TrEMBL record:
Residue stretches of biased makeup (Basic and acidic residues): 43-62
Domain of life: Bacteria
Protein name: Uncharacterized protein
Source species of the chain: Streptomyces qaidamensis
Record region (Disordered): 35-62
C-alpha cells in the first residue's frame, strides 16, 4: 500500500505529536523519580528502607 503525500504528512504530524507527549511523560517521570530518590536518600544513609515512627517493631534507643 502506497500512501499519498498528504497521508505521509498527516502520519508524520501524528508521529511528532506522539513524540512530544512521550517526551513530556518522560520528563514528568524523571522528576518523580528524582523526588522519590531524594525521599529515600536520608533513609538509606541510616540503613533503612521504611519510615520511622510508632509500630515498626524496633527502636533506636537500644
Amino acid at each position: 500500500m502506497q500512501m499519498t503525500p498528504e497521508q505521509l504528512v498527516a502520519e508524520f504530524k501524528d508521529t511528532v505529536l506522539d513524540l512530544h507527549f512521550a517526551r513530556r511523560t518522560i520528563a514528568a517521570l524523571e522528576a518523580e523519580n528524582t523526588s522519590l530518590r531524594a525521599q529515600l536518600a536520608p533513609e538509606e544513609e541510616h540503613g533503612h528502607s521504611h519510615p520511622h515512627g510508632e509500630g515498626h517493631g524496633h527502636s533506636h534507643d537500644d
